[in-house]
Amino acid sequence: MSLMSMTGRGTGSAAGRLARAEAELSSVNRKQLDVGVGLPRVLASFESRVQAQIQQALSRGRVTGEIRVTWAEAAQRSGVRVDEALARAHVAALRSAAKKLGLPDDLKAAALLALPGVVVAEHGAMDIEALWPVVAQALAAALEKLQTMRRKEGAALGRDLRARLKTLARLTAEIGARAPAVVETYRANLLKRISAALPGTDLAGDERVLKEVALFADRSDLTEERVRLESHLRQAADLLKAGGVAGRTLDFLVQEMGREINTIGSKANDGEITRRVIAFKTELERIREQVQNIE
To answer: What is the pTM of this model?
Structure first.
């Protein structure tokens, strides 16, 4: 199963006896699934079914779009109604106003089209319900194209992330290789400072020096942080390999890696390790940005 991006777009259409339906969907990253698809007023009763169909296909992302319907000629003829009472009221009011203002009475039948609410398109409940399979088919086609695009981008994200995780693993190994030298460097520098302050004094085996070096070694030990980092990196690599819905877990692992590398940076006391910590954090931030778009 491949990774899925949360960014994509898809369109679909279907035609039936009553009408032709067109669906257009687009999605962007969002922590939860958030659906906002516009429907014509006449299809308002389908809103919950549209939401359910999208929820079955997707688990995360902000999904927007619209569904449009073009009625067949026969359905248009059967569904058009003129509200005669409202038309009379409009005409009477307009003629009264024209008379008061001294304007010619030049109303024509075509003017009824411009009067709000006079000409309405209506379709019976049975006809509307019969339209659902066409709407569902158009929506399914749009979702399929949307998922294809999300899957393609997800594959590209996966390749990029695997390469970046290898970089983090290399930096972690380099930090581990450098760590033992940090204590020895501290010991050598401590003895150098003592010799500079007290020329001719050899305190290499002095208990106080050994105790100070031991305390430093304990404070600067990076073993626990490195072990946890390596574990997080393995888990992230396994998630990328397994695919599927992995965005939330990857985001959590990135946060945990950030905590561990920050602790290593604060304990390092070494320029070589600090440089690798900075490189690690830079690459981790790029990973964080990419993970935000994985379903």
So the answer is: 0.71
